[in-house]
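Lab manual, section 2.4: Encoding a predicted structure.

Procedure: take the sequence of the chain (103 residues), apply the prediction step described in section 2.3, and record the output as C-alpha cells. A sample record is shown.
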Amino acid sequence: MSESCWYVYLIRCRHGTLYAGISTDVARRFAEHQAGAPKGARYLRGKGPLQLEFQAIAGDRSAATKLEIWVKGLPRNVKEDVVAGRSDLLKLFAQAQAREALQ
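Recorded output:
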C-alpha cells in the first residue's frame, strides 16, 4: 500500500503572519481554513482574509510532519525569503538535517 504524497504550505494572515501546515490536498485544506470550519486551524480563525503563499511536496506523512515542525521554528525573515523565492525550503531543510547528523 503506497502512502499519499504530503505537502507543506504557508498561509499569510491579514496581519502578515505566516502559518505553516501540511496536507495531502492543499486546496481543500486552504478552503477549510478560509471557511473557519471546525476542521480548519483554530489559529487562523478570525485572521482572514487568508492568502496561500507557498506549497511544496514534502514526501510521506512522517517527512511532512518533521518539515512542518522545522518550518514553524524558522525566523520570519527566512519564511519570507522562501515565499519570495529567494530561498529553497527543501534545500535549507536538507542542510539543517545534514548539520544535525554531524553533531
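Check your result against the sample. The chain has a mean pLDDT of 93.
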